[in-house]
Design goal:
8 helices; about 140 residues; about 70% helix; mainly alpha; 3 domains; Arc Repressor Mutant, subunit A; elongated
């Protein structure tokens, strides 16, 4: 297909505002998706959906990450891009960072001082972790 007419570009804008993707629009106009993107940038219409992450959505993202879900899976589940998920985790999930070895030692010492039963449980868990690591699980 040749150059897109002004009427076609107006239709493309309406389809983008309605939520259609560049691929879907390009198929209906018989052009390449990059042509759609070009016309959106040229007409100063944002090409990607942009919205702020609400506090509830940020908490959901952090909960999913703390449950061990990958960033890619979180992005698919929440509908945000991976970069947005990374940004939320970086800005609001500082407490999700793994504990450093010194932090673990400090926690163990404080627990060991309080209750010998907790100290035994910690040693049992550490032993179990070493065994599972050797076995390859």
């Amino acid at each position: 297909m040749g150059k897109l007419s002004k009427k076609q570009i107006d239709e493309i804008k309406q389809l983008k505002k309605a939520g259609f993707t560049n691929n879907e629009i390009s198929e209906s106009f018989g052009c390449h998706p990059s042509a759609i993107s070009y016309h959106m940038v040229r007409s100063s219409l944002k090409n990607k959906r942009q919205r702020n992450v609400t506090t509830k959505e940020a908490k959901d993202i952090l909960n999913l990450k703390s449950d061990g879900m990958s960033v890619e899976d979180i992005a698919k589940k929440t509908g945000f891009g991976r970069s947005t998920v990374y940004k939320v985790i970086k800005e609001k999930g500082k407490d999700l960072a793994p504990l450093r070895k010194t932090d673990k030692i400090r926690i163990k010492r404080s627990l060991n001082d309080k209750d010998p039963a907790i100290a035994l449980a910690i040693r049992s868990v550490e032993l179990l972790e070493r065994i599972l690591k050797k076995v390859g699980i």
